Amino acid sequence: MKRKWKLITLITLFSLLNCCIPYSFLNSFESNRIFQMLYKASNHLLSLQTESGAFIPSELVAYYNTYIYIHSYVFDALLDAQDASIKISPDVIIKAQNYLLKMRYMDCWNFTLHIPCDTDDSAIATLTLLRSGIKEENISKSIEKLNSSITSEGYSKLWITNNDTVYMYFVENNSYSNYYGNVYDSIILTAGTVYDLFIYNYSIYKNVIDKGIIILENSQEGNGAWLSKYWYPGVFYGIFLYTRLIALNKPNSNALLKTYEFLLNNQHSDGGWGRNESSNPLDTSLALISLHYLNLVGFMCKFTVLKGINYLFHEQYNNGTFLEVPLWTSAPYSYYQGKILTTVFAVKALALYTTDINDNYLSGVFLQIFIICLIALTCIEYSNYFWEKNYPHYYLKEKFRQWKIIYEIRTRLLKYRKSE
């Protein structure tokens, strides 16, 4: 009997070491550190709101008026922070909503006067309003405008054409329209537009969403990345948009596996990601967001993520912001860049992992209890019989079989992936 209880004790201690310590460590230390980083960055974003309700950073470098894009992404990041228990005043949200509604032109958005609406600005503005709980009657026409921008092949056009006087003036007098054209196709635009349709109502737009996902899958490079055919440098902004859409709609897509391998293979020794062989906080944040969506469908990346978060920890300034990195460039200009834009994506990443770590802790506790109970019951059930009968060789054979079953159950729980 002593041998039996020694065995049970050893198994229980092993299970506790295997399950309890990592989750407890993450919960008590990493979650605390991530939350403090998130708190500082979120407070800085909140300080940007003006009386008009707009979030307008003073240091933004922009050749054109990019306020809709920046405002929408700051608003979106703060909604993520709110989901991670950062307190956001209802007045802040209402003012931010009203600003976007006031700046809307014919149910969509543009980035400067005298040109028609574009799907880039309209998609992020619409998504933010959807996430902020705007009433359906205030957003349904904007969704229809985005849907109208999608071609029969499934691509999203750059311009949302209303056939109005502004658009006709634009076509006749603006060389910008000649360069980019009315039907400029981009998988980045497609990913943003289709994601809005998914968030709004999957059942209504299922065919459009499925067609868009196929386009994204077919556009992936062999190494698992997507090359931007738009103005965005590097691959990480695109990976964030595509991974988010595919993971939530087609979790068994082979494209996700290739992206997972790309992100793991391209993490730098300092824990970050970046273009030109050097890490930067913008690309690192985008990679971490992508890994969050990969983790949702079963890809294990705990230590990769912790290294990335540690990199961000050392890159954050005292006021909560991060290094200015261009997100959108078209020589000789860098249209969208600034500490705020980098901070936006850092907030989105940190907010997701503040939630993830707490959720993982709870799931880890339940998993640990399940494993310990299962092991203890099987040991008690079989040990008396085999010790009494004195068949040690049969006992070992049976125990190996049990351990194999337990290992398979634990593996499935940890690496569960949805089927079609």
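Above is the first protein from milestone M3; the second protein from the same milestone is given next.
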Amino acid sequence: MLALGWLLMSRPLLLYVDPVDYERAQVLEACDARGVVRACRSPCLACLPCVLHSKRKHPHLKAVHEVWSHALAKRMCERPEASEADLQRVQAAVAPAAGEEREWCRAALGRRARVAGVLCGSDGGLGTAERLQDALAAGRSNGVVPARRDKFLMHEVLRAAGLRAAAQVCECSLAVSC
């Protein structure tokens, strides 16, 4: 059983930050079609054929591991129509704090889990997704880059590289003078 656990848990998996709305179904369907799988944390012998023959499906296998950014989790939990089950589901899958990514990965996904990449379903979760990608799949990351999330910085980086960028003005103060 130990060898089976190693085989199952060493499979690559994807983290999906803020899996919301219609995109969620499309992403999961696309992952399933491409054979992106993650084995269950407590492997059973029934999973072995699925791992060895990736065309076969099994209910113990999932395409991605869903994670919520703190910002979106907070908004979801504040919704008046959120049920107790919704609250528990979201709170159980909140992304780790900065610096705790590796420990969280071992605890939440298993000691041998290998994060192959991170997807993001919301603008608010981009910082979380970028941080998780950098910490857990560093070979597929070029670091945490604030210009990826800040449109003003993005255009300044383009301009600094000698590329055309949108003309822009930054109002540094909200104070109004009369």
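Note on the second protein: The first strand starts at residue 12 and ends at 17.
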